[in-house]
Amino acid sequence: MARVEAECYEQFVPRGGFVSRKGEPAESWLGVISGIVKINNFSPTGKSVTFTGVPAGSWFGEGTLLKDELRKYDCMALRDSRIAHMPISTFRWLLETSLPFTRFLLMQLNERLGQFIGLVENDRLLDPDTRVARCLASLFNSQLYPGIEKLVQISQEEVGLLSGASRQRANQALQLLEKEGLLRVDYGGIRILDLEGLRHFEA
Questions:
Q1: Beta strands in the chain, from DSSP E residues, in sequence order
Q2: Beta bridge partners of 58
Q3: CATH second-level architecture of 1-98?
Q4: Cα→Cα distances 179→57, 167, 168, 185, Å
Q5: N or C: which end of the chain has fewer CB within 10 A?
């Protein structure tokens, strides 16, 4: 723990700024101390594709470190964010010497795989209302996002970016989900009232 605390460092990334860019060398494992980060890519025509959002209390980017490759996606701050960096040397040292850390990474990768399978399914099979519901529910994963609370500090624009919908369409979906009693749109965020209902909602 002393070595980790001594070698990790913090970075402030303003809203819209890059935490890391596609094609960069992966030099650290990334954690979100505060704020929220989206993982996305751009097509050759400039279309943005968002894979997931990473809220405070979460780590990401371990796959790139394990494969020792360049970043394959952009990571951008959806709001002012504080980012923790664990240098790759520290990451590898923990991987080689700490069984609990290795077990944590194994669970992290398994949960991430399940999350992305669900995202592909949602994108291909579900309507926008259901995609918004599943997008919000996916933020409540105790393994990937242990720090998140029932009040998600996320804007309607950010919900749209994460669910692949316009801000207006995301707003319509949130109104429908609010009428269904699954959530409440509060000042500064969205309060989840029925998490299981969101996970199983179908329009």
A1: 9-13, 18-20, 28-34, 36-42, 48-55, 58-60, 74-77, 81-87, 151-152, 183-186, 189-192
A2: 32
A3: Sandwich (2.60)
A4: 30, 18, 17, 11
A5: N
Handedness of CA 51, 145, 160, 202 (dihedral sign): positive
- pLDDT score, position 124: 56
Distance CA 67, CA 62 (A): 9
The CA distance from 98 to 37, in Å, is 28
Residue 20 to residues 4, 56, 111, 131, 171: CA-CA distances in angstroms?
A: 21, 17, 22, 27, 29
Pick the CATH number of 126-203 from 1.20.1420.30, 1.10.3720.10, 1.10.10.10, 2.50.20.10: 1.10.10.10
Name which of 199, 127, 200, 138 is nearest 170 in CA terms.
127
- Round to whole Å and give the CA distance between 84 and 58: 10
Q: Find, among 133, 135, 131, the residue nearest to 178 by Cα.
A: 133
The pLDDT tens digits of the residues spanning 172-200 come to: 999 999 999 999 998 778 888 898 898 88
Domain extents in the chain = 1-98, 126-203
Query: Which tokens go with 117?
Result: 């399978």
Continuous segment of H or E residues that includes residue 119: helix 99-125
Token reading at 126: 């579900």
- Two structure tokens written together for 137: 């529910």
Q: Which residues contact 106 (CB under 8 A, 6 or more apart)?
A: none
